[in-house]
Amino acid sequence: MTGWRHSSLGIIDRSRPISFRWEGRSYRGFRGDTLASALLANGVSIVGRSFKHHRPRGLLAAGLEEPSAIVQTGAGAKSLPNLRATEVDLVEGLEAHAVNAWPSVSTDVFASLGLMKRFIPAAFYYKTFMWPGWELFEPWIRRLAGLGQAPDQPDPDTYEHAHEHVDTLIIGAGVAGLQAALASIRSGAATLLIEHDAVAGGRALGAEQSLSGTPVGSWIAEALAEIDAAPHGRRLMRSTAIGLYDHGLAAIYERSDPAGPPGAQGSLRGRLWKIRARRIIVAAGAIERPLVFSGNDCPGVMLASAAETYLHRYGVVSGRRIVLAANNDRAYRAAFALNDAGAEIVAVLDARPEADIGLLEIARERFPVHPETLPLRVEGRDRVRAVRPARLDGSGAMASLSEEIACDTVLVSGGWTPSVHLHSHLGGRLRWDDMISSFVPVQPSDVLSVGEAAGEFADLGRIRPIVCVETPGGREEETAFVDLQNDVTLLDVRLAVRENFRSVEHLKRYTTLGMATDQGKTSNINGLAILAAELGRTPAEVGVTRFRPPYHPTPIGAFAGHRIGDTLRPRRRLAADAAHARMGARMEDYGHWSRPAFYPQARETEREAVHREVCAVRTAAGLFDASSLGKIEVIGPDAGLFLDRIYPGSMAAMKPGRCKYAVMLSEHGTILDDGVVARLDADRFLVGATSGNAEKVAAHLEDWLQCEWPELRVMTIDVTTDWAVMTISGPKARLILAQLGASIDVSREAFPHLSVREGSLLGVPCRIQRVSFTGEVSFEISIPWAYAEDLHSRLMASGASLGLIPVGIEAIMTLRIEKGFIHLGSETDGVTLPDDLGLSGLVSRRKADFVGKRSLSRPEALRQDRRQLVGLEALDGSAPPIGAHVVSDRPDSLRGGAHSEGWVTSSILSPTLSRGIALGLVEAGRSRHGEIVILRDGNRVLKARITPPGAYDPSGERMHD
Amino acid sequence: MIDLALSSDFPRSCRAAAMVDGLGIFRIRHLPSGPSLRRSGPEALAGLPDCLGVQDRGGAWLASVAPSDWLLLGPASSARSCLDRLGSGLDPALARVFDISASRIVLELDPEREERVLSAYTSLPREQALSAWRCAPTRFGDCLVTFIRRQAGSGILMVLDPSLASYVASLLKRMD
Question: Could you tell me if A686 and A754 lie in one domain?
Answer without folding.
Answer: no
